[in-house]
Every structure is written in C-alpha cells, then in structure tokens.
Amino acid sequence: MSGNGKKVGIVGSGLIGRSWAMLFAGAGYQVRLFDVVASQIPSALEDIKGQLERLSASGLLRGTLSAQQQMELITGASELSDCVSGAVHVQECIPESVELKQKMFEQLDALVDGTTVMCSSTSCIAASKFTQNLKHRSRCLVAHPVNPPYYVPLVELIPAPWTDPEAVTQTRQLMIEIGQSPISLNKEMPGFALNRIQYAILNECWYLVSEGVLSAEDIDTVMKDGLGPRYAFMGPLETAHLNAEGMLNYCERYGSTIEGVSKTLGPIPHWGGAQAEEIHRQLTAMVPLEKLQERRAWRDARLTALAKLKKDADK
C-alpha cells in the first residue's frame, strides 16, 4: 500500500470510473465515487466488488491489499463536494462533450484548492477546450487511459498550454505509483497519440476489407497473431531497430519499400453506410451482440494475464 490514506475523487461511475476507483484503491487511496445520476452508484460499487473478488480468486488482483480491504477504501459520494473536497487528485470520467466538461470543471474549480490536480479521462478533447476560464486552470490536464484502464496500463498525459509542469510531473508520478504506464505529450494534438496511431491502423484495415483483400476475421488475425505479439513487448520503432542493424540500417534496407507501399494506402474512409454494415455483419458472425459482455470478460482476463506475464518477464 502506498496511498497513505490520501483521498482521490472519481467523477463518473461508468466503466472507466470504476476501473480508476479500483486502481487507486489498490494503491491504498481513499476513493470517493460520484455520479450525477446518484442511483447508479450502488450498482457501480457492486460491480467493483465483483471484479475485485474475481481478480483475487484468479490471483490477478493488483496491490498488496485484499479485495475486501480495497473495497473498503471505495465509497459513494452523494454530493460532488464530498467527492472532491480535500482530494489530492480528481479524475473526471463523464461523457465526451465539451459542454458537459466545461460545466463539470467549472463546478470542480469552485470546490478545490490550488493543490488538487484535476484530470479528464477524455480520449479526444483537449484540456484547453474546457479549462481556459478556470481559476485553477494551471492544475488541469488530460489523463487519458486505455479502455479498460485496470487491464491496460497506458495513460496519456496531455497538458493545456497553461498547465503547470509540476502538475504533470505530480500526475505522472501518481500514475506510476498506482501501477500505470504514463506517457507525456509535449503539446496538444488532435486524437493525442494512441488514437492517432489506432485510427491509422483502423483506416487501412477498413480499406483492405472494402477492397476485398481480406475478411474482417483475417484482418484481426494479422494483428493478434502477427504484429500484436511483438507490439505487446516493444513498440514499432524498436521493432524496426531490432529487425536490422539499427534504425539507420533499417531505413537503408526498407525505406524505399515503405515509401512505395505507403503511396498505395487507402484514403480516409467514411465510417458508415454499406461498408460499415458489411463489416458489422462479419464481426457479429465472429462475436454475436448477445455475446459482447461475455467476450469483454474474456478480453479483460487475458489482458490481466498478459500484464502479469509482462511484469514477471521484466523481473
């Protein structure tokens, strides 16, 4: 345990908020969970309890505290003030809407002092879009997790132009403390980093299916049984570095080929219409809609096992 009983506020009790609550509790923090729809809190707490118990039973629970001890650190808050007052860190997890985030951060700004860091879990909205008029705007930034955060450790930290560098440093240290893997963007960029890379992959996958080159199932096999195993342990740049005698040699060997193939990549597709219906048909044949929750549980279990494998391998 490393949180020393310090308080963290989680605003939003959906899947992302629940994962954050579990992560902070696993590191010993007192967690207050708030939702504007107060009736959702009991079911969120029950789901968290079930997740912690299942993780404990499978030997994959994070931290040194038992599932029961972690659960005792997580409580619901009926008022936003109770959630965030005195918190060292606030993690906002509300829907992706600039208007909603502006309103929420205005409320948060009025409730915290200059020591609390306020982070948004947004996957695409820059902090400068909803913090510019706040008194404590220098304590605001984006801390974008990967869904589901408990099972995938990456967190993107993106400051606004006015964010105090110390707030970024504090958040980065906090993310490491709770077992996440933070990266820091030096400036705001549409889509941040993860989604820019993800969208580039998705766009080309869409193009290959639309051109009849591969089925959706075979496209996914390319990643899970081809690129994915390598990328689970190293990034694409190190992969290239190791696939030759260093990056300069890689560029000498394959640079012209990469440039030539890249000129044939598909255009940015329209994510809708007949092609979307066809890809949806293929994917539902692989995973029927009624099986999505079951498949998500399967995904989470394997991501947790992979995280444990990677941690053990690093030792």
Give a short overview.
The chain is 51% helix and 12% strand.
Number of domains: 2
Which shape, going by the Cα principal axes? globular
The CATH architecture of the largest domain comes to: 3-Layer(aba) Sandwich
Adjacency order of strands in the biggest sheet = 3-2-1-4-5-6-7-8
CATH topology of the largest domain: Rossmann fold
Largest sheet: 8 strands, mixed
- Radius of gyration equals 21 Å
Number of DSSP-assigned strands: 8
- Structural class by SSE content: alpha/beta
First-to-last CA distance: 20 Å
Content of β-strand = 5-15%
* Helical amount: 40-55%
* Count of DSSP-assigned helices: 12
Low-confidence spans: pLDDT under 50, at least 5 residues? none
CATH class of the largest domain: Alpha Beta
Written as H for each helix and E for each strand, in order along the chain, the element string is EHEHHEHEHEEEHEHHHHHH
**What is the mean pLDDT?**
95
Q: So, the CATH homologous superfamily of the largest domain?
A: NAD(P)-binding Rossmann-like Domain
In words, what does this structure look like?
- By secondary structure, this protein is of the alpha/beta class.
- The protein folds into 2 domains: 7-184, Rossmann fold, CATH 3.40.50; 194-314, N-(1-d-carboxylethyl)-l-norvaline Dehydrogenase, domain 2 (Orthogonal Bundle), CATH 1.10.1040.10.
- Helices cover 51% and strands 12% of the residues.
- It is built from 12 helices and 8 strands.
- It has helices at 15-26, 40-57, 67-72, 80-84, 98-111, 165-177, 194-210, 216-231, 236-242, 247-262, 273-286, 292-314; strands spanning 7-11, 30-34, 74-77, 89-92, 117-120, 140-145, 154-159, 181-184.
- It has an 8-stranded mixed β-sheet with strand order 3-2-1-4-5-6-7-8, with helices on both faces.
- Helix 1 links the parallel strand 1 (7-11) and strand 2.
- Helix 1 crosses helix 2.
- The mean pLDDT is 95.
